[in-house]
Design goal:
409 residues, 18 helices, 77% helix
Length: 409
């Protein structure tokens, strides 16, 4: 229901701002809004078309991994943590392994692999759902973990900075790591409180403490490397592990003596079906967001926030990066475009560009994740998922700004 109000709200706000601009003499706003609706709908289909190939590839490989026993083994590995975060999922259920694979891909910054693995996990969680149109607690926990987007190696952002000519493309690595960890930590803790999961559980405390120590170790390790070494090692580790997973799947399938090719095709067909299923959900959310942007509402909101902080006497050097934060939960490509635009205008090594990059890497695109993950299984009643995803996003953006001030000021 909350997502329904937000969706309608985008259209209403876009209309109201268009009326205001019309009263100011800007009659072109209406054509901009309608052009945006068509281009956004086309973009939604292009995204689905792109996902068709990626989904087919990874769901085919996942089917091999599942029949080879690898997914079940991974599920047992993280079972001590997951049985506490997902008490509604039976121990040893295939969803455990799929969720672990998805989170691992996210942490390595491998969005292409993370999405199909996440959709696989969501479909397996849906099998346990008694009310098929209503999100379960486990689904919401999994979605928030994706929306908070814990990313240990932000490869794409470092690549964009390198293309823009940054003197040190990897200097945002540590601020992003700090911001995304805080967002994920807050998302987990807040949902544990909401779902009445016992935070004092020794195993849960041990895992959360271990995660903090692991992130701290990464910060220490990469802070001791040169910029060239950071870029080389981060890319190597992510891609080596990803290709290693593929080899492990194939070897496990050979050991089980399954027909690898036929098994891959069977899983790939599921990927095609899933890609088609999410098209209406993507069209709905992306068109609403596109019209909202075209109306100029984003500019007015940005000016209002900057004026508020200025009145409170708070430093606003970061304010030029605010559109990235406001756009990020709505459109990954939009916020990425704003980040690149800031690098072009102010320079990739400017404070504003670094703040924008830190915000961009702090969390994932919330509404895209909601539309794709819930849309793939036909969930329309999202319950409290939107509010907690927004909480993680806001915390991530604030953490990104603060981390940028710590590292670059």
């Amino acid at each position: 229901m909350v997502l329904n109000y937000i969706w309608v709200g985008f259209f209403v706000v876009a209309f109201l701002f268009a009326v205001v601009r019309t009263m100011g003499g800007d009659l072109s706003v209406w054509s901009s809004i309608m052009e945006s609706s068509f281009s956004s709908a086309a973009n939604a289909f292009e995204i689905s078309l792109y996902l068709t190939g990626v989904l087919s590839l990874w769901l085919g490989l996942m089917k091999i991994g599942e029949r080879g026993g690898v997914i079940q083994a991974l599920g047992r590995l993280v079972s001590p943590l997951f049985v506490r975060l997902f008490p509604g999922v039976p121990k040893g259920h295939p969803a455990m392994g799929s969720m672990f694979m998805n989170m691992s891909a996210n942490m390595l910054g491998l969005d292409n692999a993370a999405t199909p693995l996440g959709l696989k996990a969501m479909n397996e969680l849906q099998e346990l759902n008694k009310e098929k149109d209503r999100a379960t607690d486990a689904m919401i926990m999994f979605l928030i973990l994706n929306a908070s987007g814990l990313c240990l190696i932000p490869i794409s952002i470092m690549m964009y900075r390198a293309q823009a000519g940054a003197a040190n493309p990897t200097d945002v690595f540590l601020p992003i790591l700090v911001a995304t960890f805080i967002a994920t930590f807050v998302g987990i803790v807040s949902l544990c409180i909401r779902q009445k999961i016992r935070l004092s559980d020794p195993v849960l405390i041990g895992w959360l403490t271990g995660m903090a120590a692991f992130v701290g170790g990464i910060v220490w390790f990469f802070s001791s490397l040169s910029q060239e070494a950071v870029q080389i090692w981060s890319g190597f580790i992510a891609n080596f592990l990803l290709f290693g997973i593929i080899i492990v799947f194939l070897v496990a399938g050979l050991r089980k003596r399954i027909n690898l090719y036929d098994t891959f095709i069977e899983g790939a067909k599921e990927g095609f079906t899933t890609a088609v299923k999410i098209i209406p959900y993507l069209v709905a959310i992306l068109v609403a967001i596109g019209m909202f942007r075209a109306s100029g509402a984003m500019d007015y909101i940005t000016m209002g926030i900057v004026a508020l902080f200025s009145a409170l006497g708070i430093d606003t050097d970061w304010a030029e990066a605010l559109p990235t934060a406001l756009m990020k939960p709505m459109s990954g490509s939009g916020s990425r475009g704003m980040m690149i635009d800031l690098m072009n205008i102010y320079g990739p090594d400017s404070f504003v560009a670094r703040v924008s990059a830190s915000i961009q890497g702090s969390t994932d695109t919330m509404f895209y994740v909601l539309a794709v993950y819930f849309g793939s299984v036909g969930v329309t009643r999202t319950r409290y998922a939107v509010s907690y995803a927004l909480l993680a996003d806001i915390v991530g953006s604030i953490s990104g700004v603060v981390a940028a001030y710590i590292f670059f000021r």
